[in-house]
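Hi, can you check this record?
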Amino acid sequence: AERLVARAGEADFRALYRELVETDTSLSSGSCTLAAERMAARLVAAGHAKDDVEVIVPPDFPRQGNLVARIAGTDRTLLPILLLAHIDVVEAKRSDWKRDPFTLVEENGYFYARGAVDDKAMAASFVDAFIRYKQEGYRPKRTIKLALTCGEETDSVFNGVQYLLATAPDTLAAEFALNEGGSGSLDENGKPVSFGVQIGEKIYQDFTLTVTAPGGHSARPTDDNAIGRLAAAVARIDRYRFPVNMTEATKGFFRRTSALYEGQVAQDLAAAGNGTANEAAFARIAAANPLWNAFLRTTCIPTQLAGGHAPNAQPQHAEANVNCRIMPGESVDAVRARLAEIAADPGVEIALAAEPGPQPPAPPLDARIMKSVEAIAAEMWPGVPVIPSLSSGATDGRFLNAAGIPTYGISGVFRDPDGNGVHGLDERIRVTSLLDARAFLYRLVKACSAR
């Protein structure tokens, strides 16, 4: 019965999803405010009180509106659960796409459009759940809050989560939050391989390395060459591997992933997950998969180089960007100091390319949430393991975690091996994956709010 209820109303959901996806919310030409207003209208039409639904528009950013809503719980002693999804999308140039990126196209078992996955699949599923809970008369024990925010993709301009935390913190206050970030993996034939749960994320930080020198005529070279010194320092950084430093989530990832492999790979992954791996095992893991290496340690790599002012002159200035993805619990200052040690040249200045963002620790691996996820996933995708992981990218969860709201990436969406064009051309999602994720989130939010 629960499975049937979770699948009910798919035609209405398709219409809701289409409206949200076809509302352009890119920074250059779209409006999150319009999207938020359209979703708010659907909630009110479903019977939600107007006092429980609000579109909050920052005065300085009239097109960056955010929707917040709530369903009051019956037990005031329980803190709320927060459902977070961003409604802004990455830019999409029409001339580059095979289809209009802001027209939802269903073709060959896929929905194509910008935001079809990131993150309007989750946003539409949350709005749909709110509508169905109201229609069913569902009364949760724990208050359920919804926040559809703007600016996740362009947080250097504006970020809705930061804005709400600063101006209306009660709209987001919760015991924990469900967010994007965790997704399932499909093999080349579309068969589910694993169900991902994101628990924490790495810290993004760019560093600028600069060397200056007197310069001079290239026909009379000296030992003080800005490009040469910078290149030597960058090469040392490129070769360096930070020490292994895993979180509980990454240990869980390796432990559970080991069951998908055989032989030495399985043994190495299990040892990493159980805390018994030696340096040789870690080296094999890192060499086998770049993502596994990223889960083991902080990573820093050179990504840009510039220098010199003329082809016939000794360079007076050279500059490089080193991009770091820092493990939770490690400080930006400590990584900067380590880069200086590796560069081994006091003439190489190392500065922050931008002020550091939040640096929260990874949230705990909450057994209550995992139990609900595992139970529902086992029923919907029998035999598919639930695997916790750490994100090497960035989501709005970093702001909530920094504010003391443990945030978990659990989308229920299964993706193809190529990533489904997210942030790229012809973004797409399997129709079955979208409808399955909708049913999964409907059930998970009920499970988490009913106790």
Remarks:
- The CA atoms of residues 189 and 198 lie 24 Å apart.
